[in-house]
């Protein structure tokens, strides 16, 4: 079958070939659509419409004809205003709005404003990079670092803020300190010409949909039939293109140099390419590069990933004691339990019509996966389901049994930008240059893990080649 594919590919005049190892496109964008209309997300569930990267994604959504599929969550929605922490056995609403900044909001022992004002006086750091925890502890105090930032890193990277790099995970805040000596001043005054020029280079004029997101102050959006709709629509659009071929179930097994290009080894057969855009995880790329690219492979292998155990739950009726986007759990409270998303609050349209129901997603593991669960392979679903429902009972007081559940282990699903990630990226880029490899990198392993970042990285990779076509 595959050798037939290799022969077919050689025969066609396609100038662009997309190869996907698995039986579906979209990677971690994965949604279950039940026959009764319920949608459960097993990967990302909301995309932020903010900034050039956010507009770029919405422009693509519009171009793919998905405007009518968009489910926006506006600024004044309860899911935008209410986000919780589970700390010392209790749920706490995170400070929001002006009131939340001036008042002391438990579990914090002083108003956020006090920490923010003090931040302006803190001396500028000198390190080339710093862990997220060290940076925030130095500038805003131990309490915010131990609780709020610890949670934030678990809810974006499923990662440990004591290992993650401030420079690579939160570049605007790192650059703000560098430019103005303070996060607060940097955010208020801007970080100077360098950043502005960078934004201009992005050149993302907003579509009507992106303008609408701005006008209506969306905080995030999803799609009526789930996030998986996006790669499906993209696949359909690509299949209509004359010079593009897309293939699934075709893992790239190896790469060797052939003249000025590559020979791509498939399971059975091979195809030739002038240039490769790699959108596979860094470690997967390392394992297919030729031995001559040993040092590049080594740097790619250093980009670690973590696994997440994800449990979707559906309960009969409206069973939540609070309403909001969900809650995060600091590692000091429970290392294994990262947080719970209250999916039916931001996206009630994904719930089955008729009788009320509550959909939750419990996420576990991340940077603590190995120490808490062992190897991700072969874990008992019942154990993970039990752990998830016990957390829902302890955190939310829900004693009912779920009427539907789905357990999955997402192995190596999220890259970790550990301390010194920027240096690794420099070594990777310079290795590609030094060996004149016709290779461009895209995807979550390098310059941002969000859906927006990843889509923008693909666009940039393609644009960098346009001159060569
Ligand atoms: C649980 C979870 C929740 C998340 N929540 C959000 C969120 O709310 N908002 C947000 O913006 N982001 C979120 N993210 C992050 C975001 O979803 C991911 O970072 C992003 O989808 C990664 O996309 P990617 O294309 O870089 O990588 P992947 O999705 O990993 O895709 C890589 C593809 O390469 C294929 N592949 C691998 N090896 C080969 C090979 N040898 N040959 C051919 N193909 C190969 C794989 O099969 C896969 O399809 C979340 C991630 C997870 C895991
Ligand atoms: C409330 C609980 C949350 C859990 C549990 C959670 C898990 C989780 N998230 C990611 C990756 C990303 N999440 C992102 C955005 C995001 N996540 C939550 C909450 C939880 N996430 C919220 C409220 C948001 C929106 C943030 C906002 O509006 O300010 C993103 C995108 C970040 C961006 O820059 O756009 C990513 C990436 C993983 C891997 C994960 C697993 C435990």
Automatic annotation (TrEMBL):
Cofactor(s) required, per the database record: FAD
Molecular function per GO: oxygen-dependent protoporphyrinogen oxidase activity
One Pfam family it belongs to: Amino_oxidase
Principal location listed in the UniProt entry: mitochondrion
UniProt catalytic activity: protoporphyrinogen IX + 3 O2 = protoporphyrin IX + 3 H2O2
Compartment annotation: Mitochondrion inner membrane
Flavoprotein found in the keyword field: yes
Any one GO CC term of the record: mitochondrial inner membrane
Residue intervals of the Amine oxidase domain: 17-464
Pathway info: Porphyrin-containing compound metabolism; protoporphyrin-IX biosynthesis; protoporphyrin-IX from protoporphyrinogen-IX: step 1/1
Comment on bound cofactor: Binds 1 FAD per subunit.
Top enzyme class: oxidoreductase
E.C. no: 1.3.3.4
GO BP term, example: protoporphyrinogen IX biosynthetic process
Key words, A-Z: FAD, Flavoprotein, Heme biosynthesis, Oxidoreductase, Porphyrin biosynthesis
Similarity field: Belongs to the protoporphyrinogen/coproporphyrinogen oxidase family. Protoporphyrinogen oxidase subfamily.
Physiological role: Catalyzes the 6-electron oxidation of protoporphyrinogen-IX to form protoporphyrin-IX.
NCBIfam families per record: proto_IX_ox
Record's protein name: Protoporphyrinogen oxidase
Organism field: Scleropages formosus
């Amino acid at each position: 079958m595959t050798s037939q594919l290799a022969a077919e590919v050689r025969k066609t005049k396609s100038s662009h070939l997309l190869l996907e190892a698995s039986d579906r496109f979209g990677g971690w964008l994965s949604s279950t659509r039940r026959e009764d209309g319920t949608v459960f997300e097993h990967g990302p569930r909301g995309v932020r419409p903010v900034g050039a990267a956010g507009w770029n994604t919405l422009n693509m959504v519009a171009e793919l004809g998905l405007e009518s599929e968009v489910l926006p969550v506006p600024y004044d929605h309860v899911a935008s205003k209410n986000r919780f922490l589970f700390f010392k056995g209790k749920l706490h609403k995170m400070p929001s709005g002006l009131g939340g900044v001036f008042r002391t909001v438990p579990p914090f022992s002083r108003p956020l404003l006090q920490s923010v004002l003090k931040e302006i006086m803190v001396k500028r750091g000198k390190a080339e990079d710093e862990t997220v925890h060290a940076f925030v502890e130095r500038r805003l105090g131990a309490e915010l670092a131990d609780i709020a930032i610890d949670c934030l890193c678990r809810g974006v990277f499923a990662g440990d803020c004591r290992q993650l790099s401030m420079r690579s995970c939160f570049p605007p805040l790192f650059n703000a300190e560098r430019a103005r000596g303070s996060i607060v001043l940097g955010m208020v005054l801007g970080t100077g010409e360098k950043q502005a020029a960078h934004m201009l280079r992005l050149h993302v004029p907003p579509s009507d949909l992106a303008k609408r997101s701005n006008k209506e102050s969306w905080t995030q959006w999803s799609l009526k039939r789930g996030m998986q709709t996006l790669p499906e629509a993209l696949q359909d659009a690509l299949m209509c293109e004359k010079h593009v071929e897309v293939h699934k179930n075709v893992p790239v097994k190896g790469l060797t140099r052939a003249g000025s290009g590559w020979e791509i080894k498939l399971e059975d057969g091979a195809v030739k390419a002038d240039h490769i855009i790699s959108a596979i995880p860094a470690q997967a790329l390392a394992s297919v590069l030729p031995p001559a690219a040993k040092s590049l492979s080594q740097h790619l292998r250093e980009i670690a990933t973590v696994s997440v155990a994800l449990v979707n739950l559906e309960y009969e009726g409206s069973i939540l004691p609070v309403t909001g986007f969900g809650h995060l759990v600091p590692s000091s409270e429970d290392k294994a339990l990262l947080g719970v998303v209250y999916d039916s609050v931001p996206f009630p349209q994904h719930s089955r019509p008729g009788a009320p129901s509550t959909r939750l997603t419990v996420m576990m593991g991340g940077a603590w996966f190995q120490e808490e669960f062992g190897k991700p392979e072969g874990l008992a679903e019942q154990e993970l389901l039990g752990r998830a429902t016990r957390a829902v009972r302890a955190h939310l007081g829900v004693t009912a049994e779920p009427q539907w559940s789905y357990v999955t282990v997402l192995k190596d699903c999220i890259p970790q930008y550990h301390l010194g990630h920027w240096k690794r990226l420099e070594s990777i880029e310079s290795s590609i240059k030094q060996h004149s490899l016709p290779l461009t990198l895209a995807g979550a392993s390098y310059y941002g893990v969000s859906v927006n970042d990843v889509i923008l990285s693909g666009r940039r990779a393609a644009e960098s080649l346009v001159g060569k076509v």
